[in-house]
Structure formats: C-alpha cells, structure tokens
Records
---
Amino acid sequence: MGKKKSNKLNLIICGVAFLIMVFVLISEGIDNIINALLQLNPLFLLLAVGCIVLYWFGEGYGLHLAAKSLEPKTRFRDSFLVTMIGQYFNCITPFASGGQPMQIYTYYKKGMPLGSAMTALLSRFIVYQFTLTLYSAVFLIFRLSMFTEGDLKPLTLLIIVGFIINTFVIALLFMLAFFRAATTKLAHGVIRLLAKIRLIKDPEDKLEYIDKELETYYENFKFIKSQPVMILKMFLITVVQLLCYFSITYVIYIGFNIEHNTDFLTVIACQAFVLMISAFVPLPGAMGAAEGSYAAFFKGIFGDYYTSVSTFIWRFLTFYLPILVGIVINLRMSKSGVDLNNAEEHLKIEEAEKSQ
C-alpha cells in the first residue's frame, strides 16, 4: 500500500474513532451532556485551548533553537510549520512514527540541507524524550503509590511497562552515541543471526545500511554534544511545554467547578500515566487505550457525571484538533506543489542524487 493510501486509511480510522467517541458520549444521555457542558466555565475551556497552543509553540521553539544553530537564516514560522506537520502525521500513524520524514522534507523544501534538517529533528527528539522520561520518573516516585490499590491497580503494570519503554528508548539513543563500537558490533551480530535463521535476505546490504545510519546518527550527536547551552534551553522549554500539556485536564477540572479535593500534582501525574500507557499501543494516537486509560484514571476525580465530557474535550484538544489543523496545512501545501504524503520517496531520490 502506498504512503498516500495508507495515510488516507489512517484518517478514516481516526474519523471512525471520533464517531465512536461521540456515540459513547451521547449514550450517557443528551440532557446529562448539555447540563455538564453548561457547568463548564467558557474561560477555562479557552485556557485549555491555550494550553495546547502553548504546547505547540513550545515544540516549535524547541525545534527552532536547534534549526537556527545549524542554519542561522531559518525562520521561526518555518519551524512552527514543521512542528504542526509533525503533530499531524504523528497523530495519524502508529507509534507516532510518521512525522519525521515529512518534517525533514518540509525543512528541505524551505531551503535547509537534508543533513541539517535531520540533525535538528534528532536533537529535538532526544531532548523531548529525555525530558518526558524524567517527568515520568518523578511522577512514579511521588504518585505511583496512590494508584496501586483499588480499581486502578490493574493499570499499575501498564504504567511501569510504558515507563520502561520510554527509558529504553532514551537509553538506546545514548548508547548509540557514547558506545559506538559496542553498538555497531551488537547490530552486526543481530543482522547475522537473523540472516542465519533466514529471517532476512541480503545481510551484507543490511550491514552496509546499518553502518551508514549509525554513522549519520553519530555525526549528528557530535553536534548535540557541542551545543550544551542550546540543549539546556531546549530542555527548559520542554519542561514548560509538557507542563502545559499535562495541565489541560486540571484546567478542565477547575472549569467544571467541581468540589476541588484533588491537587494539581495528582491530576498531572494521572495525565502523565495516561501518556505512558499510550506509548506502546500500535494504533494511531493509541486509539482506545488513550481514552480508556484517561477515563479510568479520572473517573475518581471528575465523578461519573463529568468523566465522559472531560474525556471528549481532552481527546479533541490533544488528538483531533492537531489532525484538523494538519489537514488544512497539508491541503495548502499540496496546492503549492509540496506532496508531503510521498515525502519518504522524495527524500530517497534527493539522497540518491546527492550521493552521485
């Protein structure tokens, strides 16, 4: 299946998931939904929208710091455009894996060399992943004990698995950077083992590809190590950015004017745990797992009356809104002659021409 058809299918799946969520919400009773929404202070709904917009701008500015360090003429509006393209394609692809080729291609079309674009995005990814892992560790230390009993106890294992996955990713990234020889040897051993048991063909081609990718990563990481001030700034921005994301639910909670007996740290810990559980679900946006875990964590906070409505608002702001914005951007770029759906093919052609 071509990338364009695959993306269309993913969009259809997202649309069906949205309709299911609406159906579940309606099944709670139209009158209950209307009454719950009437209780929501419009100012706090706007603040929740503001939180997700700040999250986007934080992502854009963090990426822009790396891009501008590599290419001083880079404009923030280009970095923000690249950010929103990443948000869109990450939302509609499993494991949020589809955004980076489109982001690299967009930077390239804006005049940035491919190598610089890849380095900027890798820098951003490493800092974001490290900060998220650090947040997760703090919440596990200070709040996990509150969720190891009662109805939430079955989710504890999922939280820990999600944390292990996040930690494994960042550990692998640092291992690739600081233990180059050992990593190369390990990768070669895995390729040869897979070839021996006939799971892959042309092992020599695979070994050559692995060596090339590791070399590219290592060269990119040398840039990261040479920019400690920029990395520190990016880290601090990411701390604030994730806090904005985690605060969306607390803003909604305050907006409903519920009797407030849950503190801010507990609410954002629940939000972080939802993110951890969603990390290993192989569906676009972790559909089903994200909504289900959110409802499970926040039912005791919002109560039966508000849980479904708050789940819908949170999910719309964090998942469906960036998809809607991304569709508009994608259509506008298509009209201007930039085909993002086939970005990977275009990048392969550009790299092949560059190597000649």
---
Amino acid sequence: MQAINVLLVDDHPVVRQGLISLLSQYPDIHVVAQADRAATVLELAAQLRPDIILLDVRLEDASGLDVARQLRSARCAARIIILTSYDDESYLLEAARLGVDGFLLKNTSAEVLADAIRAVHAGEQRLSPTLGSKVFGQLKALSRSHVRSASGLTDQELELLRLIADGASVSQMTRSLFLSERTVKRKTKDVLAKLGATNRAQAVAEAFRRGLF
C-alpha cells in the first residue's frame, strides 16, 4: 500500500514532534516534511506535492487560513486539514468557505486523526465531533418550514445536510437515512447543486451564508 504523504505545518516544535511520533505508528501515513512558518509552506507543497497538509490555524507569521487561501489560489492539489486548539465557529466557517477538507481539534486522539487523514485522502470531509455537534445544534434551532423556504431543500435533504455538517461518512449516511449508498451519493449531489456548492465543505459554508445554520 502506498503511504499517504503528509506535510505538517505548526509553529510549535513540541506539537510537531508529538504529531510525528503519533502518526509514525501508522505505516500508511508518512510525514514527508514539516514547516513552522507560512512562508515555506507553498514552496514545500510545490516541491513535495504531499497528499495532505495538516495546517495549524495560527502561525507565527500568518494565519493558517490565509495559507489555505494561498494554496487554493495556487491550485495546490493537496487536501487540507486544519488542526487547531481553537473551536471558534468563525474559523470553521472561513475554512469551509475556502473548501478546506477537514477541521480537527488538537485534542483529537491519534486514531481519530489517522482515520480523518485516510478519509480526507479518499475524498471525504471530516470535522471534530464537538464541532459537528455545534453545527447540528444551530441547525435544529431553525424551523423546518423556514429552512425549506430559504434553501429549497426537502426534509430528507435537510437531514442529509445535517449529516454532512456533522462529518458523517457515506456509510454512516446510509444507516441514518435508510438509503442505499448510490441514493445517498445522488442526493448529496442534489443538495450541493441546490446550494451551488462543488463539495461538502462548500455546502456547509453556503448553508452558513444563507442562515441555514
């Protein structure tokens, strides 16, 4: 099996060393390089072409979200996972608007982090469970009729959007909605189309923008 190559970006040496140590126990995940400053990330990403960039939201010389924006502008093919100590919803919203593929807190266990890296590498999105719960709590606060009139989503599509915001995998969606995997994928495309989004993260961001969350 070819290892998933990871570029680790964090301005704290102890944090970087700890993450490298944690991830070293998984043979399918390989930290190919590390960076502590935003200025070197684009260069390393272009040189090494990592599969995943683990990116802190606060760096010494820039915001990690600004780095993510630069990576997207440079059409970097790497998938981006924000790994931070801050559960500020404004960070989550901006990350989603940028099309970031994952948003995890640093208190995430090694196993959950490794699973998230694998899932994001496979094309899925991942949120820390506590962040997903925040999104779900805001979503439930709205009436179903208001959400439908504002977004054009059906009850089932709204539930699917809730699962997307909660970071659920396709298999988890099939169990929750009692639908086939094929139907879940088709309905996910329908939800993205209605929201004018190209991926799950952008769908969540658009839902925030429209006031659905």
---
Amino acid sequence: MTLLVTGGAGFIGSNFVLDWLAQSDERVLNLDALTYAGNLRNLASLAADARHVFVQGDIGNRALVDRLLAEHRPRAIVHFAAESHVDRSILGPGAFIQTNVQGTFTLLEAARAYWSTLAEAERAAFRFLHVSTDEVYGNLAAGAPAFTEQHAYEPNSPYSASKAASDHLVRAWHHTYGLPVLTTNCSNNYGPYQFPEKLIPLVITHALAGKPMPVYGDGMQVRDWLYVGDHCSALRAVLAAGRVGQTYNIGGWNEQPNIEIVQTICALLDELRPSAAGPYARLVTYVKDRPGHDRRYAIDARKIERELGWRPAETFASGIRKTVQWVLDHAGWVAEVQSGSYRDWVAVNYDQR
C-alpha cells in the first residue's frame, strides 16, 4: 500500500510524512517541487528508509503525476502542496494562483483519470484528502461564533482566495465526477521545521539574533493555534474514517492575540536561553499592519471530535515550549534556511514598515 503525499518536504507535509512512517509501514511517495519552503533536511532521518520515495517535481506537471500514479498505484493522495504565506501573496499573487488553483486542478484531473482505472473495490477505498486553511472563511468579529464547516467563504487575501478556489474545485470534482474527496480546514500551525517567515519561528529566530521582533499593527489580531503534531493526528483520523465528500475543521481550541504569543515566546526564551542584554521583550517592535489583515480567526472543531473522536493532545503551553526548545536544539537547520534569499525577503517585507 502506498500514499502519495504532495508537498511532503514543507512544514506540515514533512511533519506528516515523519509522523506517518513512525506509526506505519505503508510506503509514502513524496512529490515536492522544493521551492523556497521545501527542505529535504526536514526528511534527513528517512534518507535510508525504503518506505520513503522522494520525487522532486511540480503538481502542475500532468505527465509526471500521471506516471507516478501509474507506477506506484497509491490508495490515497494527501494534498499539502501550496503556496501558503499571506505576505508573499500580497506582493506576488501569481504564484499562488498557479500552484494553489491550477496545480490543484491538474492534480484532481490526474487523480480522476487514475481513479477511473481502478477495480471496483480499489475505487471505493480510494481517497483524495485536500488540506486547506481556516482563512478561506474570512474575518470574524470579536465575540462572533467560531468557524464551523457551514460558514460561508469570504476570503480576503490572494492566498486565502486561492485556497478557497482550490476547495471549491475539490468539492466540484466530488459532486460532478464522484471522486472520493475529503477536505480539512485547519487553524494556524506551529512546531518543528516551520519556515521562519511565519510569526512564531520569525519571533524566535529574531529574538535569538538580537533583532527587532516585528508585530503587525497593535498585535491584537486573534488566531487559533494548532500544534503541527496534533494536525497530523487529525489528518490520520480523517483519512481513516472521514465521510467521503465531507469537510472537517481542525483547530487547537486556543485563541490568542498575536502579542500574547510573542510575550509567551519571550518569557520562554528568558527561561531557556537568557540574554546578557536583558529580557527579550525589549526587542518587540510594532510595525505597519499588512493590507487587509483579518482581525480574528477561530475554529469550531466539534464535528471532528463528534464523528472521529479527535481532540488536540497539546495545550498551547506544552506545544510552544516544545517548539522553542526545538529551535534552540536545531541551530544548524535554522541557519541553513535563513539563506540570502530569505534575508532579502525579510528586508522587502519589513524594512519599509
């Protein structure tokens, strides 16, 4: 048996692959284009593991995807591959349309063609699991009920609009062609191997380097935070027992303003790696907010708990401590991903704020 995982060298994808192979002998065929956020070092522990087959390639390459499906005959596709950073989508939306919309379309068409060739029992067992985001639901007012799976889509950034489009394609391929799909919409992930453009690793790495920690606007944007290991366990549950055609929201039951996240990180670093220059909170720097910044997201994850028995195992306190400690223990990985192109991006995004 084989899973095809797209984007399996990225942050969430690599955590999923590592987690899957730690608990199963089922092979993973990992297709990743290795753009700036894809990193084979995330998967270094699998270098000699015959259960992991890595292929560098683009989900938009139909001939390649067709060949891989025919050769490896996966029982399921777990689709992570996506451009995912809102700030990058604002400065360069084209890549998000190409990967998230066109790429998902190409993958769906390849999956549909492959699925149609399977024997009846294999067709019935096949799954296409599409991993998406809570950002497709748009902005929540303070005090408003959290996003459920019935919440209307109101994407407000090029990133969330591209993911909303991909969600709609997945839904349509199920309702029109019968492709057995599952969709998940998760809240903000954090944990090992996260590229340091996102808030939590950005703050940790800037603090350790003695650099200003940029906080957008007043820092009171609220997000629900989900430890990546919990996300992986939820995806395993959905793949194993989710109802075909259904959407499952995956959240951490942890709403916090960004500034509180930053303050928690500072306190942990003061404890675990004190700075001779004084408390890390001295480096907090408020910068101009990004355009169209949604004020609040929150996930109602009761459906996945009710139907599949899943709840996150980590509290935010336990998850963020593990994350900070991981960064402290993996200075080499952090230094490698902070390449010249990464430094250029940080300068472009933050220097004029």
